[in-house]
């Protein structure tokens, strides 16, 4: 197995400690799986995950968010034993599908519609985290920038 070296990326990225482990996990995981799903970008801060969960009822599905990981589980109820199948092509197994959520992304809605489980997500960045413009002032003499003067005082 090939390992990826992300060190060039981290020269200019500060505070993305979990990024390398997330990328490695994504690299290691196999594509596909059950149940199939789509991830849609509806707008800049709105997303939708749609999972094909035909045959599962609302009471057989579960959603949980813990430490920025969305877990979707499905567990079928036991069928009565008196059924006899000539051919059984519909999967009757449970599943667990996990999605890593970015900071400030939360689940706002989940609904089951025509065999698809739609999970709506929204990124809500707090005001304190949004970009803001910093004004650079001059000191009293006007010869140095205010930020540079403050830095000199601290040294």
UniProtKB/TrEMBL annotation:
This protein's record includes keyword Iron-sulfur: no
InterPro entries the UniProt entry points to: A-crystallin/Hsp20_dom (IPR002068), ACD_IbpA/B (IPR037913), HSP20-like_chaperone (IPR008978)
Pfam families: HSP20
UniProtKB keywords: Stress response
Domain SHSP: 28-139
Domain of life: Bacteria
PROSITE patterns per UniProt: SHSP (PS01031)
Coiled coil: none
Family in the record: Belongs to the small heat shock protein (HSP20) family.
Designated name of the protein: 16 kDa heat shock protein A
Source species of the chain: Thiorhodovibrio winogradskyi
């Amino acid at each position: 197995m090939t390992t990826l070296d992300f060190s060039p990326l981290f020269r200019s990225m500060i505070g993305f400690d979990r990024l390398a482990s997330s990328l490695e996990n994504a690299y290691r995981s196999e594509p596909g799986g059950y149940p199939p799903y789509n991830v849609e970008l509806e707008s800049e801060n709105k997303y939708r995950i749609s999972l094909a969960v035909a045959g599962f009822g609302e009471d057989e599905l579960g959603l949980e968010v813990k430490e920025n990981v969305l877990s979707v589980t499905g567990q079928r109820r036991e069928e009565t034993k008196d059924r006899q199948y000539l051919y059984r092509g519909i999967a009757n197994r449970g599943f667990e599908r996990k999605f890593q959520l970015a900071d400030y992304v939360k689940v706002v809605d989940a609904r089951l519609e025509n065999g698809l489980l739609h999970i709506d997500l929204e990124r809500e960045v707090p005001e304190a985290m949004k970009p803001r413009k910093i004004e650079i002032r001059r000191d009293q003499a006007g010869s140095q920038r205010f930020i540079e003067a403050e830095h000199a005082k601290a040294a």
